[in-house]
Every structure is written in C-alpha cells, then in structure tokens.
Amino acid sequence: MVELANNNLSGILADDMGLGKTVQAIAYMSYVQDTKKINGKHIVIVPKNVLNNWKREFTHWNPKFRVVTLPGTEE
After folding, report:
1. Which candidate, 25, 1, 21, places its Cα nearest to that of 11?
2. For 64, which of 10, 23, 24, 42 is 20 to 30 Å away at the CA?
3. Whole-angstrom Cα distance, residue 27 to residue 31?
4. pLDDT tens-digit profile of 12-62?
C-alpha cells in the first residue's frame, strides 16, 4: 500500500478472509498519519456484519484514531 501511494497509484486489498486486510489497512493509515504527517479523515466501507470488528481493531491497534461508525440501512 505504501509503495502504491508513493508512486501515485491506487489499490485495494482483496484476498481471502483471515489474511490480515483489517490490520494492513489500519497500519497503512497509521503510517500516513505518523510518518507522512498527513492528518485527515478516512472512510472505510465494510459490510455491516464486520463493522463492530473493525471498530474493535482500530481501538486495539491505533487508539489515537477517532472512529465513528455509521451503519447503513437494509433495502
């Protein structure tokens, strides 16, 4: 993710469940904040069934982040 950003490229993490995408995303956002000194808002869109897990992982891995969850509605 860092290498993509350094080369002005975008990318996504898309692989099987359980391979650490959540922690990789949190680590990347922490890197951007701590190393690059870019403080900003980020949006993470996840399925509703993993929303609480993401919030818990943010609290565990980088408690400096202010996490706001906005659960959507079922249509």
Report:
1. 1
2. 10
3. 6
4. 888 787 788 889 889 999 998 988 888 888 888 888 888 899 999 999 999
